[in-house]
Write a structure and sequence with these properties.
This protein is an alpha+beta fold. It is 49% helix and 22% strand. It contains eleven helices and ten strands. The chain has helices at residues 5-15, 19-28, 33-50, 80-83, 86-101, 107-111, 120-131, 171-184, 196-212, 217-235, 250-257, and strands at residues 58-66, 69-77, 114-115, 118-119, 136-144, 147-152, 158-164, 241-242, 245-249, 263-270. The strands form four sheets. The protein has a three-stranded antiparallel sheet. It has a three-stranded antiparallel sheet with strand order 6-7-10. Strand 8 and strand 9 form a beta hairpin.
Length: 274
């Protein structure tokens, strides 16, 4: 049967595939839309398999807040051209909306969510076939608290989400903290949250540096501890200097707003080299 422009346009709206891909798929499927969609999907799987060893270093990183729940997602691709494509950005937003609506806790749960005629993972593969680039859902993180906030840096390459222990935190205050996380890249909320292996490595580095400086062996441990205190102020969010007023810490900034206010958790994803 002859493939009409209306059929091609309809399939394009259903799949997001290019006009020629839609025409060829409909021709091969003899006008059967379900078969045509499957043909396009198989093309996506073939492209994904062929380009699996390619590096996907570009993409779209966004965050959204829904009251007591907020999430960040990173959908990666190979080129900046695709990353800025409206359909690619829309797909990232749609995935995040689904994840938040279902309160997914892990990236595996997100990938398994129903989307279109398949899953989120299938939708990413389908988009790979349309663009001809490797794509992967590479990052997903959530925070929960009595209030949450997010920050997306212009360009969609860096986003953060943060949760607080108090409801109704002023929007400007929560936004400032989300921006602090973006700018200063902490690894933990406080000292207790620093991973044990990271702390052990830093202690070893501090001790080795003291020895190289010729410090007495009996003072090495004390000197190392002093340097660890400085390390905490660099990597623990609440101990960091508040970027808009370096004379106070983030913890002090929050206490100036509300003596009970503190950060519960945060997530940060970036495509940039920190």
């Amino acid at each position: 049967m002859a493939v009409t422009m209306a059929d091609i346009t309809h399939l394009r709206k259903m799949t997001g595939a290019g006009m020629m891909d839609c025409k060829n798929a409909l021709t091969e499927a003899e006008g059967d839309f379900d078969k045509a969609i499957e043909i396009i999907r198989k093309k996506g799987q073939a492209v994904a398999a062929k380009r699996s060893d390619r590096e996907a270093s570009e993409g779209c990183v966004i965050a959204k807040s829904a009251g007591e729940f907020a999430a960040v997602v990173a959908l990666k691709c190979e080129t900046d051209f695709v990353a800025k494509n409206a359909d690619f950005v829309a797909l990232t937003n749609e995935i995040l909306d689904l994840a938040i609506a279902n309160k997914c806790a892990t990236i595996e749960e997100v990938k398994a969510l129903p989307m279109g005629k398949g899953t989120v993972a299938d939708a990413v593969t389908d988009r790979s076939g349309i663009t001809g680039e490797k794509m992967e859902l590479d990052g997903y993180g959530v925070v929960e608290g009595l209030s949450t906030a997010i920050y997306i840096h212009p360009g969609n390459r860096l986003a953060t989400a943060v949760s607080f222990n108090v409801a109704g935190v002023d929007a400007q205050v929560s936004h400032e903290v989300a921006m602090q996380i973006a700018a200063m890249n902490p690894i933990a909320v406080n000292q207790e949250g620093v991973p044990a292996d990271v702390l052990a490595r830093e202690k070893e580095i501090a001790a080795d540096k003291a020895r190289q400086e010729g410090k007495p062996e009996n003072l090495i441990e004390r000197i190392a501890e002093g340097r660890i205190s400085k390390f905490y102020k660099e990597v623990c969010l609440l101990e960091q200097e508040y970027v808009k007023d370096p004379k106070i810490s983030v913890a002090q900034f929050l206490k100036n707003i509300n003596k009970d206010l503190t950060v519960v958790n945060f997530k940060r994803f970036t495509l940039n080299a920190d």
